[in-house]
Fold this sequence. Notes:
The protein is mainly alpha-helical. The protein has helices at 13-18, 26-38, 44-54, 59-67, 81-91, 107-118, 136-141, 144-147; strands at 72-76, 121-123, 126-130. Strand 2 (121-123) and strand 3 (126-130) form a beta hairpin. Helix 2 (26-38) runs parallel beside helix 4 (59-67). The chain is elongated.
Amino acid sequence: MRLSSWTPLSLSSKVQEVIDPRKDSLEELNEMCRAIHAIFPTDRDKLDAVIDFARPEHASQIKRLAEELPLFDFVPGVSSPEEYGRYMIQSSGRFDYDDHLEPYYDYAQYGQDRIMVEEGRFVDSGYVSYQGSLALEQLMNDSAEELQGGMKMR
């Protein structure tokens, strides 16, 4: 079911694949739309990649991902450890790249090492990693009030 006619906000196919009016209340759908609307339009591709990465099952989880989007790193267009390593060394700004040393760079190994450390994953549109301190499942399922101060109160 296509829900883009419900609101002026155009929902991506990734969002539409997850939401279901039979399991998501109208309030949850509206909150999700507000959270998506609040992010920059240029970050919508990143949100779609994060949805692929996190695999939410409900509108409320997409809402949390949209609200916490800065906790995710996204490198569009890379699909292998070598491409990710090349991006990190040449383009990320974290290193002083020297093209005279090109034959000595092992992009694939560096990319693989970073992926393991970051626990990142390749999705259809690029590479995604989560940098937050909470477990991803907890981030998607806890309300903002419970997360205040970084600790969940029971």
